Amino acid sequence: MKNIVSLIVVLFMFSSCGAQNTTTDTKIETSVLESNDRPKLVVGIVVDQMRYDYLTRFESKFGDGGFNRMINEGFNCKNNHFNYVPTYTGPGHASVYTGTTPKIHGIIGNNWYDKETKGMVYCAGDDDAQSVGTEDKAGKMSPHRMQTTTFADENRLFTQGQGKTIGISLKDRGAILPAGHTANAAYWFHGRDEGRWISSSHYMTELPEWVLNFNASTHAESYLKEWNTLYDISTYTESGVDENTFEGGFKGKEKATFPYDLKALSKDNRGYDILKATPYGNSLTADFAMAAIEAEGLGQDQITDVLAVSFSATDYVGHNFGVNSKEVQDTYLRLDKDLERLFEYLDTTVGKGEYTVFLTADHGAIDVPSYLSSLKVPAGYVNNKDRKAIFNAFLEATYGTDSIVENISNDQIFLDRNKVKELGLKLSDVQDAIAMEQLSYLNVSKVYTGTTMGSTGFYGGIEDLLQNGFNQKRSGDVILVNDTSFISYGKTGSTHGSGLNYDTHVPLLFFGKGIKHGETFNKTVIPDIAPTISALLGISFPNGATGQPLGFVID
Ligand SMILES: [Zn+2]
């Protein structure tokens, strides 16, 4: 009896497998790609230089359709951080989309010293690529220096190239790195006297019709208008006084105060490039993103497309006016309106609940150190000139030459290894000696050597962050960490780059298809984003991903 039951079970199994193999093969394959469980479109939004506290500081002034819609309908990861140094734009965008850190994806800075060619290289620069849409070299770009895939690449592989990817940002690197190697297109804004969206031969030989039409329209020009506050400036109680000594401002205007006549100021501020440092740069980005959704039919079938949009104007405004400025507040209130516009557009074109959005940043920013020190908070500026003079004297006295150091950039010292050999010295000894010397300098708080980074595993603290940002092939021989709130920058405006909370703590919001409603104070890190989206889509994680999928945000 038992044997008969077993036989029936086995026969049944064979017959059901047989049925699948012969009659429904094609149907199964299409249904895998055209699953109703997946969003039709994933929209990744990176807000350049957005600190976490901008979400809370300006919350009462935001409307219901932008940031607050994401919070009210979606999932808010309130303790989300970068887990590496340096916190710059290139590494930030690469890490969000590859799910790993510079140690693995290789984007160790915006620019870095290339040990092989003995010169500086740009993270998205590619001499082999040709500009598309301009005669200028601004289009000679590609993601070739990024050594791993993004989740958008994995989606392209999974869907056999049927799911589209488009990257859009004012900054080339903000469009190129997220979109990945296999993107259909990446577009960025070329200002100067052209004011148009361009691309590179990595993606196409000429701009599509809809981009040409957009460029031929008066879109960009229409934003060369007066920039005044969206609401009465007296209601902007969440930022400092408009006139102060901590802001840069535009050339041709004495004070960094509202209003700004952008048309008049554009002449002294690189033409259309002035838009990048105003909220209108973000509005223009949203306009272009919506034009892309329409023309490319993104999210119009069940095969998931990916749109990577980066709002870069926030970074230029932050660098110019600083974290506490009225200009930053106004830029975020206006970005909130642009997000509302974008989400409403997605509701109509793709359908409510049919798309998934995440929003994060590529790094945070420090409060202007001169402002902090005016409030007695320990803060200030690193004196690179003095440091360099003392350091060169040390090198001469110790090694008889300062040419043993090839380059100092991004708080790293690169040694001339041939010179080290020539002098009969051991590399790790020279690294140690230089590290000890640097540690004695004013405002240098910590120093590590490349040998230590490559031979010791760190699992916490600043050492862990430095190691996640350290790429053995590309990074330097000695790594410096400055005192907290001490930066190498002008006395006005904000910058970023450190492993401290002001640079690492950034928003992470998810909303739309497949996302739960909720919030958490549990720590999440930037590399968790890409595996989370991969898990949501049921596709492979990016090939170098080190983050973990945030299961608690997925419905
Ligand atoms: Zn920046």
Describe the structure.
The chain is α/β, with parallel strands linked by helices and 555 residues long. The chain has 22 helices and 22 strands. A ten-stranded mixed beta sheet has the order 6-9-8-7-12-1-13-20-2-21, with helices on both faces. The protein has a four-stranded antiparallel beta sheet with strand order 15-16-18-17. A hairpin with a 2-residue loop joins strand 15 and strand 16. Helix 12 (279-296) packs parallel to helix 14 and helix 13 (313-321) runs antiparallel to helix 14 (326-351). The protein is globular. The two termini are 45 Å apart. Residues 49, 89, 315, 319, 496 line the site of zinc ion.
Topology, pairings included?
Elements: H1 2-23, H2 25-33, E1 41-47, H3 53-57, H4 67-73, E2 75-77, E3 80-81, H5 89-98, H6 102-105, E4 111-114, E5 119-122, E6 131-132, H7 151-158, E7 165-169, H8 172-179, E8 185-190, E9 196-200, H9 209-216, H10 219-222, E10 226-227, E11 260-261, H11 262-265, H12 279-296, E12 305-311, H13 313-321, H14 326-351, E13 355-361, H15 369-374, E14 380-381, H16 384-399, E15 405-409, E16 412-415, H17 417-422, H18 427-439, E17 444-449, H19 450-455, H20 461-468, E18 478-482, E19 486-487, H21 501-504, E20 509-512, E21 518-520, E22 524-525, H22 529-537
Parallel strand pairs: 1-12, 1-13, 2-21, 3-22, 7-8, 7-12, 14-19
Antiparallel strand pairs: 2-20, 4-5, 6-9, 8-9, 10-11, 13-20, 15-16, 16-18, 17-18
Helix pairs in contact: 5-8, 12-14, 13-14
The chain binds zinc ion.
